[in-house]
Write a structure and sequence with these properties.
Low-confidence stretches: none
Radius of gyration: 33 Å
Structural class: alpha+beta
Number of helices: 8
Largest sheet: 4 strands, mixed
Distance between the termini: 7 Å
Order of helices and strands: EEEHEHHHHHHH
Strand content: 5-15%
Mean pLDDT: 82
Helix content: 55-70%
Number of domains: 3
Shape: elongated
Amino acid sequence: MTGYGSARGTFHDKTILVELRSVNSKFTEVRLKLPVGYKSYETAIRKLVAEVIDRGKIELNLYVKSEDNTTESGINKELFKSYYTTLNSLCRELEISDQNILQSILSIPEVLSSEAAEIEEEEWLASEKVLKEAFEAFNEFRKVEGGALKKDLEERLDSIQTMLIAIEPFEVVRLDFQKNRLQKLLEEHGNGSIVDQNRFEQELIYYLEKIDINEEKVRLRQHCIYFASELNASQMNKGRKLGFIAQEIGREINTLGAKAYSADIQKLVVMMKDDLEKIKEQIANIV
């Protein structure tokens, strides 16, 4: 499920800002952007993320700005200046381009190591507090989105059940139509021979049983009830189970279509399939 959360805090003369974003994915992929001084806390931050988010592509950005509004980059300024002066002088002396000097200097490990190689424990505790606040905002965002998602799924499910009820009036008409059609075909191709009415009735019953959809309707109704029950259940990680139930719903709808032999029922089946596809799309956003 997509989500967003942010929080802001302070530590002495520094402002701490955390932004957290996620998009749906079958797997868990966490991408962190941290100040250099926070690298030693990367494992702790990943653990905090894992406690909040089960799966998805997650991007977490942690910014620390000083009072003068400059972001702590972790660049060793004196060493950078020294390398720049030396390399710039060599470029002029050797008459070569200085176009890539900045990129080359920033690729030197010592330049990015730091002034801010280590932060105080108190600063980490302050940042941890802001991180947790961002996670709370993130969860609130997902609750709102989840509520809208749940409402849409319930409406789609109700629509399928409504169309299932709408099939019933066409069933009797369908059976009568098939019976009359078979009777007419027998009369047309019987070559005037006497028809054994009892045998005809037996064959007719066998044929009508083959296209009977009562069992499919009962199973489809039960699957819809089960889906609604799981959707309203309090446990987490229900997306996969809902996906399995949706597959069973689809199987029964497909069988209804195959046995329909009625244009009116086929129209309802098509609309049920449309709603089911929307349900499957939404389930992909559920953890």
